[in-house]
Design a protein that fits this description.
- The chain is α/β, with parallel strands linked by helices.
- The chain is built from six helices and seven strands.
- A hairpin with a 4-residue loop joins strand 3 and strand 4.
- 37% of the residues are buried.
Length: 213
C-alpha cells in the first residue's frame, strides 16, 4: 500500500518516548519539498491541542554573505561548505539536552537570503522537533555529527523535472530573472542535488512527493 500522510503522522507521534524529546530529520535535494512537508507535519500534529511539535530548519545555519565574501564562496551559496555545520550539530545536541528551557534557533530570511539569530523559539513543551535541510545525511566533516543527534531521518523525493520546475519558480518568486534562475538551478543547485541524492540510501524512510496531494 502506498504511504499516506496519516502513516507519517502516526510514525512521527510515536517518536518521543518516556516523556523525553525526539528529533525527526527530513533530508532531500533543493526544492524536493522538505520545508513544505515539515510545515504540514507540524501543523497537523499541533492541530488538536497545545503545541508539542516545533519546526527548526537547517537553513538558519547558512553563513552570512559577509563571511561568504571573506571566504570567496558566495557564488556557490547553498553548497555544504557555505553552512555552519558544526553550529547546526551543536544546536541539535542542545535541543536533546536542554529540555527545561527555551532554546533559540536561527531562521533564514528568503528575501534578504540571510540567517537571523534568535528567530525560532523551541519551548520545553516541544516533545518533537522536526528539522529539515539538504545535508542531514552527509558524512563529510562536521555534517557527520548531525545524524547521531536525530532519532529518524526521512528523505523527501520528487520527480527530477518537477523538482527543477518548482525551484525555478521559487527563485523567480524571490526576485531572480528567468534565465538567471534557470542557470542557478542547473549549476550550483544541481551539484548540491546530485550530492544529496547519494545520501538517500542512509534514510530510514523515503517519502514520495505525492504523499502531500
Ligand atoms: N507535494 C508538493 N506538491 C506540489 N508542490 C509542492 C509540494 N511540496 C512542495 N511544493 C512546492 O515546491 C517548492 C519547493 O518546496 P519546498 O520549499 O518545500 O522545498 P525544499 O526542499 O524545502 O527546498 P529548499 O531546499 O530550497 O529549501 C515550493 O514552491 C512548494 O510550494
Ligand atoms: Mg526549504
Amino acid at each position: 500500500m502506498p504511504l499516506t500522510f496519516d502513516d507519517l503522522l502516526l510514525r512521527a507521534r510515536a517518536l518521543p518516548r518516556d516523556g523525553g524529546r525526539a528529533l525527526l530529520g527530513i533530508a532531500g535535494s533543493p526544492g524536493a519539498g522538505k520545508t513544505t512537508l515539515a510545515e504540514r507535519l507540524v501543523a497537523a500534529l499541533n492541530g488538536d491541542g497545545p503545541p508539542w511539535a516545533a519546526h527548526v530548519p537547517m537553513d538558519g545555519f547558512h553563513l552570512a554573505d559577509v563571511e561568504l565574501d571573506r571566504l570567496g564562496r558566495r557564488d556557490r551559496k547553498g553548497a555544504p561548505d557555505t553552512f555552519d555545520a558544526g553550529g547546526y550539530a551543536a544546536l541539535l545536541r542542545r535541543l536533546r539536552e536542554e529540555t527545561d528551557d527555551v532554546v533559540y534557533a536561527p531562521g533564514f530570511e528568503r528575501v534578504l537570503e540571510q540567517p537571523i539569530a534568535g528567530a525560532i523559539p523551541v519551548p520545553p513543551q516541544a516533545r518533537l522537533v522536526v528539522t529539515e535541510g539538504n545535508y542531514l545525511l552527509l558524512q563529510e566533516g562536521s555534517w557527520a555529527r548531525v545524524r547521531p543527534c536525530l532519532d529518524e531521518v526521512w528523505f523527501c523525493e520528487v520527480d527530477e523535472e518537477e523538482r527543477i520546475r518548482r525551484l525555478v519558480a521559487r527563485h523567480e518568486e524571490f526576485g531572480k530573472e528567468h534565465t538567471a534562475a534557470v542557470a542557478w538551478v542547473r549549476g550550483t543547485d544541481q551539484r548540491n542535488a546530485d550530492l544529496v541524492a547519494t545520501t538517500r540510501e542512509r534514510a530510514d524512510l523515503v517519502v514520495p512527493a505525492d504523499v502531500l496531494r
